[in-house]
Design brief:
heterotrimer; A mainly alpha; B alpha/beta; C mainly alpha; A: mainly alpha; B: alpha/beta; Rossmann fold; four-stranded antiparallel β-sheet
């Protein structure tokens, strides 16, 4: 078996860096979309609710890979501007995972007791102030576990960019497979790399959650007991309502 | 109901602005329905500035609805409400009354403060910030001034040492006292008290009522109060209004209402709660 | 933007083949996911550490790594080990295996959601283990989780174009092939994109309706 040389390792590590970048950029775009659309869906004007609902249904209904193909192959032909593959990927991932995230935001905002909004009215806060100072800070800790699940889905989704020729981990792996003629070692290694990234993300989100809960005077969540608990990267949400954690829906 | 035989729709005795106060709240022919259920039926009543008015009556008689209409948490179906002469949810345009925008309503509403049955403190803010937030961001007060005012109010309600606690770390009675301080920090002309002791454990009720008695006796704030604490109502009220089926069936001084009620329904109600 | 309906017509025969392959992969993948997921869920409740541990580690690993890489693994590594499947079979196994780790969580939540009194009643009646599971617990649990399982079928539908990367000619694969033969991408990719929305949206509406009826 031909050895994985240092050069090949470097290929994988630089791929990992691309994967991290992709995840960060897409998550940033996705967060903007999630909050924008999610809050728009609670707006008092029906047209705003309708349009934001339409966005969510369309982008949740479509397949991220097909969207990526469309942005990459059709957009340049149709409109004459060519996106760099990296940005086509970020756009596709951010827009579609943002649509899932908007459902998380909407749900968490709706779950804040209406009495809190009433208290805001009684103190003459404007609707925007009520949202910013009262509703969102209370909804935020509730969003973190489902956001964690979505973030891992997003990380997994970044592997799709290798098909477009973006040099992420999965792309590095296919180069190495061609170079060495061996598949088992390199695919095992990169699966482990993805798992480690997902683990780190989850740990990070736990810290964020602890801070967020402390910030509203709640007890911190228990951080999975025992080794098996720690291994479990996903947070249980409602019994059957775990739909948002899937790669699709 | 029995209100038919009674001048329930008449404005009550304190309608005419008295020497010490102008008319601060005025309900004109206000009707409120929930589906087929008419909660307030063509209601007229006024409250003069500086008065402490208590609304009593069986549950479902529309007392809390009045407070929620004043706070614009509910919308009036018919009629108008005026606060200090200004229409709350209407504007006069070309001699006609038209629904007012959110901005107008908010300006008028700033004169009203409210304390809720369930306190409704903001769990994401510490006690001090709960009180400071609206004065700073709604009234535009400076941080230092708002903080000073908040600390004074916390002293007033006996919680000067709990500035840095989160609401969840306080007892129900303490939370309600913070909520009173929070409402007062906006310097409202009217304070609405919506069954403020109903959610409290019995041993915590007295502390909250003491604070309110103190405020009633030492300030000139107008109070509109819904309560089941009849002794408290007797202590602080200038006027008591007895509600039944969406109408005022009887009103008068606490002595008169509690000792010598005219109306049969009032007698029944008082014998049930006293 | 230029849109050529004659290209749409040209693509239709291939598109029809692609739809059939997509639905076939979805159906078979779902069956694997439903069956295997139940196996994982039951194994995770086993009293034997030697069963519980490896299953938990394996499912966590599969669930938290990309399906695309798993497909490559199955497609390139299995033949090295002397196991060779067709591309479609490999794709179906990959989809089914990946989503079985999700359905396992769904079953687990459903089983946890059965009131404790049901276990106690089964015990009080001295029902044997198999009857307790087969006649009391699972029927109640599965009824509650049907909508969630359905949601994962919709999710799987949207991940199914990934199997085009190992050469399966499902909808996206057909579109790519059509594109590389005719240098026309706009029409086939757009049609495939719309097809996904047209299949996925009514399906998720159906699941929401089921959820209202079954999860009571």
């Amino acid at each position: 078996m031909s050895e994985l040389t240092w050069g090949l390792w470097q290929l994988l590590l630089s791929g990992a860096w691309v994967t991290v970048q992709l995840t960060v950029y897409s998550a940033a775009l996705g967060a903007v979309v999630a909050f924008g659309i999610g809050i728009a869906r609670t707006h008092r004007l029906w047209i705003v609710r309708f349009l934001s609902g339409l966005y969510m249904e369309i982008f949740r209904g479509t397949s991220a890979l097909v969207l990526m193909f469309w942005l990459f192959f059709v957009l340049p032909v149709a409109f004459g501007w060519q996106l760099l593959p990296l940005w086509a990927a970020v756009l596709a991932l951010g827009l579609s995972y943002g649509a899932y995230g908007s459902e998380v935001v909407r749900g968490a905002v709706a779950a804040v007791s209406p009495a809190q909004r009433e208290a805001g009215v009684a103190l003459s806060f404007t609707p925007a102030q009520q949202l910013r100072k009262i509703i969102i800070p209370q909804a935020w800790p509730e969003m973190i576990p489902p956001f964690n699940n979505l973030l891992i889905e997003l990380l997994k989704g970044t592997a799709l960019v290798s098909i477009m020729g973006v040099g992420d981990i999965a792309f590095g792996a296919s180069l190495i497979r061609n170079a060495t003629g061996q598949s088992a070692p390199v695919y095992t290694i990169i699966l482990l790399m993805y798992f480690v990234l997902a683990f780190v993300l989850t740990r990070g989100m736990r810290v964020v959650e602890r801070h967020a809960k402390a910030g509203i005077g709640q007890a911190p969540p228990d951080s999975g007991s025992g080794l098996l608990g720690k291994l479990s990267l996903r947070r249980q949400t409602a019994v059957t309502g775990d739909a948002t954690s899937a790669g699709g829906i | 109901m029995s209100a038919d035989s009674n001048p329930g729709n008449h404005t009550t005795e304190h309608t005419n602005p008295t020497a010490d106060g102008r008319e601060l709240i005025r309900f004109d022919k206000v009707t409120k329905r929930f589906g087929d259920n008419t909660v307030l039926d063509n209601l007229d009543f006024t409250v003069a500035a500086g008065k402490h008015v208590t609304l009593i009556g069986p549950s479902g008689s529309g007392k809390t609805t009045i407070l929620r209409l004043l706070m614009t948490l509910l919308k009036v179906d018919e009629g108008t409400i005026r606060v200090d002469g200004d229409y709350l949810t209407h504007e006069e345009k070309g001699g006609k009354l038209v629904p007012a925008g959110e901005r107008h309503t908010r300006e008028v509403r700033k004169k009203i403060g409210m304390v809720f049955q369930q306190f409704n403190l903001f769990p994401n803010m510490k006690v001090l910030r709960n009180i400071m937030e609206a004065p700073v961001h709604v009234l535009g007060l400076g941080k230092d001034e708002a903080e000073q005012r908040a600390r004074e109010l916390l002293d007033l309600v006996g919680l000067g040492d709990r500035c840095d606690a989160y609401p969840t770390q306080l007892s129900g009675g303490q939370q309600q006292r913070v909520a009173i301080a929070r409402a007062l920090a906006m310097r409202p002309q009217v304070l609405l008290l919506d069954e403020v002791t109903s959610a409290l454990d019995p041993e915590l009720v007295a502390g909250v009522l003491d604070v309110l008695r103190d405020i009633a006796h030492t300030t000139d704030i107008t109070m509109l109060c819904v309560t089941h604490e009849m002794n408290f109502a007797r202590d602080i009220s200038d006027d008591v209004l007895m509600f039944d089926a969406g109408r005022v069936i009887e009103s008068g001084s606490p002595d008169k209402i509690f000792s010598d009620p005219e109306h049969e329904r009032t007698r029944e109600f008082l014998s049930a709660v006293l | 933007m230029e849109w050529d309906w004659s290209k749409v017509g040209d693509f239709m025969p291939a598109f029809r083949d692609g739809v059939l392959v997509t639905l076939q992969a979805l159906l078979l993948g779902s069956l694997i996911a439903f069956g295997l997921g139940l196996v994982w869920a039951l194994a995770q409740r086993s009293e034997l550490k030697a069963v519980r541990w490896p299953v938990t580690v394996f499912t966590e690993f599969v669930r938290n790594t990309p399906l695309l890489v798993q497909l490559f693994f199955l497609y390139y590594v299995l033949p090295e080990w002397g196991v060779t499947f067709s591309a479609l079979t490999t794709g179906v196994i990959g989809l089914g295996l990946h989503y079985s780790t999700y359905t396992a969580e769904v079953y687990r939540a459903g089983i946890d959601g059965v009131p404790r009194g049901q276990w106690e009643a089964a015990k009080a009646l001295s029902l044997p283990r198999t009857r307790t599971w087969g006649a009391v617990i699972l029927p109640q649990a599965i009824r509650r989780v049907v909508p969630a399982l359905g949601n994962y079928v919709v999710a799987m539908l949207k991940d199914s174009p990934m199997i085009a990367t190992i050469g399966v000619l499902e909808m996206l694969g057909e579109a790519r092939q059509f594109g590389s033969q005719t240098f026309v991408m706009t029409e086939p990719i757009t049609i495939v994109g719309i097809a996904f929305i047209l299949i996925a949206y009514p399906a998720s509406l159906l699941m929401r309706a089921l959820e209202r009826r079954l999860v009571r």
